[in-house]
Write a structure and sequence with these properties.
Length: about 350
Amino acid sequence: MQNQSLTIKKEKILTGDRATGQLHLGHFVGSLQQRTALQHQYEQTILVADLQGLTDNGHNPHKVSSNILNVVADYLAVGIDPQKTTICLQSAIPALSELTMYYSNLVSVARLQRNPTVKNEIAGKSFGSSIPTGFLTYPISQAADITAFKATLIPVGDDQLPMIEQTNEIVRKLNYIAQDDILVECRPLLSKVSRLPSSDGKSKMSKSMGNCILLDSSERDISKAVKSMYTDPSHLRVEDPGKVEGNVVFTYLDAFHPDAAYVHELKARYQQGGLGDGTTKKILEECLQEILKPIRERRKTFISDKSQLIEILRSGSQKSQEESNQVLNSVKNAFGLNFFQL
Ligand code: TRP
């Protein structure tokens, strides 16, 4: 393994999650499944983004600190293997904060305000005129995350595309200053399912709104969530033709059912009339129970051994410190500020 990685230089992947809650089915289908597969072909680092989580939780830091190990347990439960994937903690890697400081001199406030994702998020929160500086500038910190690992491939949902664009702008500016390609540009790797709707079909999935299925949801909670899913309100009797678009049960079947041809057939029957919501929900529930049972059981084992989780995070962070310090060094050099080499 060691020798192989010396000869075949694998492309580098970096992803991350804000540590503000347990991970749910949306994460699973949007990114976790993909990461589990990618770890076999690429060199992958996953960042538990606690600092980014703080950007809108500065006054409620417990929401972040109490979820760090939850997120690590979620990773392990879905099959992310710490032997193959480096799992690290953003706040334990000082170079990430330092790089953010250097990069922030290359990005205007207007540019940050124009970032569509940040703009949307600000509109959806109740900051009023008190937008935390850290929140407005988190795309810079995310650029630090990505460049610190020389990552070229970023598996993300489409809401993260503006972050990739901003990262590449910073890379180009810095390379121009350095007159050398010290940083590398990255590209997104979009997942098949970008955003899974919440069970009410209206909003984003959120644990606090009780409209999502967590990776450790109990059998009963899964059943309850599926039974309450939004379908087609005008599909009143089994024999009525029903609508598939916007019907959350079918969106989930598309995302999770292993047999696409069967789902296709179900959709046709539903549209024709003669297939009841009770039946489609039963099929979905069975499928979700089957996927989540082993994950829930594995997660239970991992979360009960906190010291193992901490050790995984500690050794991943240490390895990441070494990698990111090299990039920090070259960035400091580019600014002529490396008086005492790290
Ligand atoms: N912004 C990402 C999210 O909200 C989390 C994240 C932090 C990230 N740093 C990253 C994603 C670097 C990709 C690469 O989920």
